[in-house]
Each structure stands twice: as C-alpha cells, then as structure tokens.
Amino acid sequence: MASKTTNTSKNSTIRNLFLNVIIFLLASLIIYLSFSIYIKLSGKESVNLPPKEYKTPSEIIQAEVLNGCGVTGIADRFTDYLRNKGVDIVNTDNYYRFDISKSMVIDRTGRMANAYEVAKVLGISEKNVVQLINEDYFLDVSVVIGKDYHNLKPIK
Q: pTM to 2 decimals?
C-alpha cells in the first residue's frame, strides 16, 4: 500500500512541476507582450534613421525616369541622355500626375551623393533634390521631369 501512495505522490509532484513550468512560460509571454504593446503605444520605439550619407556617388547609379509634365516622349529623351552619361536606367514611365512644375531628383536609398550626381548631369538645381527612402525600390534615384524640362541639359 505504501508503494501506491508513493507512486501517486511522485505523479502529483511531476504534474505540479509541469504545471509550474507552463505557468512560468505563459507569465513570461504575457509580460513580453505587455511590454511590446506599451512600447508601441508610448512612441518610445527606436527611430529608423536613414543610412549614413555617402560623400561620393556610386560607380553605378540605378535610376528611373518619370514623366511629370505630360509631354509625349520626354522621358525617353531623358533616358537616352542619362544612359549616354553612364547612368543605368531601370525604368521609364509616367509619374502619377502631369502637373509638376520643377523637375526633381528623389534619393531612394539614403545615398544623397547619387541624387546630386544625377541632378548635376541633368542640370537640375540641388534645391530640387529630395530624399524619400523607400526600401521597396530596387534603385538609387527617381528623376521626375517637370514643365521646366526645356531648361535642362538634355534639351539644350
């Protein structure tokens, strides 16, 4: 009879140990999730800083040319010009609207030297170079051709 009581006692101890481990794991999970929610709601989340700015442009600059002025064939003309200057054009298309007054160069990777280089090649003012980092883009620079295209180097 003593062995049956000892066996039951041993099973009870193992079951209690197992339940304590489960309780500990669940409590840890609840604490972790609560902390995560607190960080999200309090805005104390670490800020993603743009990649460090490089002083010299890349050897190969990949760019897209977007028609933002509505003139037929203007993006193709700028594409040919940039390719002749050594810029790798990966896309030529229309911008989502055609009322852009000033041409601009948009940095997509945080390497502003690439955007400034393309702006210099086209004759676009440095004040029209902006940074809109987008990790979904697989290119360095977007060129949006505005209604001032006739003042830029490919047309002159």
A: 0.67
